[in-house]
Design goal:
alpha/beta, Rossmann fold, 8 helices, 8 strands, 40% helix, disordered N terminus
């Protein structure tokens, strides 16, 4: 992102060897901190659609924010414990167990029947076993994130009702450099995520929110003067051919 490279990210080095139990505990703590800070509500407010397909519901706090915001949600995750936690927190929400990089036509049929208008993939994490080992460890988290987001956009492309895709990630940079951050995030998504999908991203549709002052499992510090952790959200919009 704008000023903090993967090599400077204290989370990147830890992620490669973190035990699964520690990863799950960290996800719970971080999502709770983000929820208390109103980040999920802010992300929800960026969605105009009322029917949302959520990729990676985690332990349900993001799903709860979507339903608080008046959205009907179909939530997917590839972990049964996450789906069970989400069901307990948000009773009645539609859930599905699936890996967004490997799915069959039965899932597509279920999603087509749901008719989502928006797809979200917010702050998706990965256990150490899912991270690529063929790149330097400092870049493994970033590569996994981009590959996941590409898969999300490809899935959205197969659903004709989807008009927007909402991607959110954490990063860090001096707050006065938000314009640079916006250009960097939009450029990365256009180059590595959208590819030939029928979606586009304009810089004006990338926005940031500070998340400094909250404890993200002790990993938010960067050690760089003036640098603050932020959440960045990008709203991709479906292109419509004009004849």
């Amino acid at each position: 992102m704008a000023s903090m490279t993967p090599a400077q990210d204290p989370a990147a080095a830890l992620a490669m060897d973190e035990p699964l139990a520690a990863t799950l505990d960290r996800w719970r703590k971080e999502s709770a901190a983000l929820d208390r800070a109103g980040v999920y509500d802010w992300l929800t407010a960026r969605i105009a659609a009322d029917r949302v397909l959520e990729i990676g519901c985690g332990f349900g706090l993001s799903t709860a924010a979507l339903t608080r915001g008046g959205k009907q949600v179909f939530a997917l995750d590839n972990r049964l414990d996450c789906l069970e936690a989400t069901q307990a927190l948000v009773p009645g929400v539609t859930l599905g167990m699936a890996d967004v990089t490997h799915y069959d036509n039965r899932l597509i049929a279920d999603l087509e029947a749901f008719e989502p208008r928006a797809v979200v993939c917010w702050l998706a994490g990965a256990p150490a076993e899912a991270l690529p080992r063929d790149v330097p460890s400092a870049y493994a988290v970033m590569q996994h994130r981009l590959q996941l987001q590409h898969a999300v956009v490809r899935l959205a492309s197969r659903l004709d009702t989807v008009q927007t895709v909402h991607l959110a990630d954490r990063t860090a940079f001096p707050w006065k450099m938000t314009a640079v951050g916006r250009k960097t995030m939009s450029g990365m998504i256009v180059a590595a995520v959208i590819a030939d999908a029928p979606f586009e991203l304009n810089e004006v549709d990338v926005q940031f929110r500070k998340i400094d002052g909250i404890d993200l499992a002790g990993r938010q510090g960067t050690g760089l003067a003036g640098v603050v952790p932020v959440v960045g959200e990008a709203t991709l919009k479906r292109r419509h051919n004009v004849t």
